[in-house]
Amino acid sequence: MRSFYGPEEHAVLAAWLRVPPPDGVPSVDEALSALGFGPGSDAHGMDTPAGNLAAAVGHIALRGIESRLPQWASVRNDIVELARKPHRSSAEMRAALLPQHLFTIDWAMTAPGLSWPERYDVVWLPQYDVRVVTASWDSPETHGFLEAALGRIEASEDVIAGVKRVIIGHWQAEASRDQVQWELFLRGGRIKKREALSWASLVWADESDDDDDDDE
Q1: Would residue 1 count as lying in a domain?
Q2: What is the pLDDT of residues 115-125, one digit of tens each?
Q3: Domain presence at residue 75
Q4: What is the CB-side half-sphere exposure of residue 47 using CA atoms within 13 A?
């Protein structure tokens, strides 16, 4: 059977999904290092061992659509520095792992031109027959990496119900660390502003906005 993944990617996906890996793949530690998420690697920001596996899965799921993801940039001495570096991905892979944008929020506008966007996508993983909900950021400053898998949705589960479960769980973890509700709804995809606000009200009951106008 034709594989959509390399040996290292199979090792990472199987470990994160907790399923037996195919024969002949490297160890998880070797695979993470090869993909740039191992100890001593700075290819994807700060080394964060606890999140490396989820970050690597997010990287695999979102590869090939970097131009659509949040991007931090700076210009110094006429040189543009980007947080997110594009990588090669075949047309077949982009078609197979075509992420669906859910919505994008901004946690806070802390200063003019300084924001903290977080984009959510859902991606089907062929061969593993599951969907993965991902989050992506414009820089590794907050989390130590640019994207991460937040959770899985089984093939038997309704997609939107699964997305809601995973994202609310993510927000609840943030709220447990005293994170206040996100400030702005930047862009809707499969999920519109009204629905995202209703989910937020389940986590931050006293902070939710009454503004239910839809965003595109």
Answers
A1: no
A2: 789 999 999 99
A3: yes
A4: 9
How far CA 108 is from CA of 82, 181, 184, in Å, comes to: 21, 9, 7
Please tell me the predicted confidence (pLDDT) of residue 97.
67
DSSP string over 69-122? S---EEEETTEEEESS------HHHHHHT--EEEEEEEEEEEETTEEEEEEEEE
In a domain, 82, yes or no: yes
Residue 216 falls within a domain, yes or no? no
Residues spanned by the domain of 13: 7-201
Longest Cα–Cα distance in the chain: 54
**Separation CA 120–CA 124 (nearest Å):** 14
CB pairs under 8 A, 24+ apart, for 92-97? Answer: 92/4, 93/4, 93/63, 93/64, 94/64, 94/65, 96/4, 96/126, 97/4, 97/60, 97/61, 97/63, 97/64, 97/123, 97/124, 97/125, 97/126
Total tally of structural domains belonging to the chain? 1
114 Cβ contact list (under 8 Å, min separation 6)? none
Tokens standing for residue 115 = 């924001």
Question: What is the distance between the alpha carbons of residues 122 and 152, in angstroms, rounded to a whole number?
Answer: 9
Query: How many CB atoms sit inside 10 A of residue 53's CB?
Result: 19
* Type of residue at 31: A
- Counting as low any pLDDT under 50, the low residues of the chain are 1, 40-50, 72-75, 80, 82-83, 88-92, 94-95, 210
